[in-house]
Amino acid sequence: GTFYNQRIFEEQGLTEPATHQEFLEMCETLKGAGLIPIAFADQPKWPAGHMFSIFAGYIAGKEKLAQAISGEVPWNDPDFVDAIQTFFVDMNQAGYFIPEVNAVTYDDANLLFASGQAATAITGTWMVGQFSDPEYIPDPVGFFFYPPIDGKPIAPPAGLGSGYFVSQATQNPQEAMRFLDYLFSEEAAKIWIEGVSSIPPIAVNVDDYNISDLMQFTIVNLQQNAETMGYNIDVLTPENFNTMMFDGFQEVLAGTKTAQEQADDLEAAMQQAKEEGKVMDITP
Description:
Elements: E1 2-5, H1 6-11, H2 20-32, E2 36-38, H3 46-60, H4 62-69, H5 78-93, H6 106-114, E3 118-122, H7 128-131, E4 141-144, E5 157-158, H8 173-183, H9 186-195, H10 213-224, E6 230-231, H11 233-236, H12 239-254, H13 259-275
Parallel strand pairs: 2-3, 5-6
Antiparallel strand pairs: 1-3, 1-4
């Protein structure tokens, strides 16, 4: 989702944008005020995959994105070309990102947001705890899902970054499984939320916890919009595809590769993965 500096928004007379066009107009206002509109940086390469997940899901739609991940719809479909063009070319050339975007780390991008040099940060909810900490960012932070593009339904990407497993070699499998059950219990939710400032893995009543307004608002939004969530592409696609995606988007950002060329290369990588039996079918 989009985290934003509420002080800056108030000073610039801005409200949460309701459409993609309003978001672009917001960026123009922020740029005119000498601020970085979006704290986007791609030195580690994976942030580009997350941005593509947003714009591909919003422009192509959740169903078509699932079909593309499953190898059933080509990645050079016009909707995916449009998604690449919109964020990685048009918004980049408009000057909405951190200068020298490919040379700046993810952590440094967040520091630019925390210091008030950048007005928004489009990133994952794993940052809620840090963005709620006044020692990290003194200004109040708000949150909204990226707004609809061309009136289409939103499909914010969601995906598992890691998982829990019980080792086959353990001498205490039942105890290990009971511990995993505990981690997903209401009792443990308090530790997830209040102890480590993390989004809980189960539905909760936020009024039962002593948490920041940002954490409360984020949890409620995630629970209310769970059915609309899209896909985090790189969690579901094969390694060769991800390599092409990450390396290719740096080239697009650098202006040495077009949106169409990147889409064609993504499709070629997917076809190779299909031939090798490495594509996962996630269609309903």
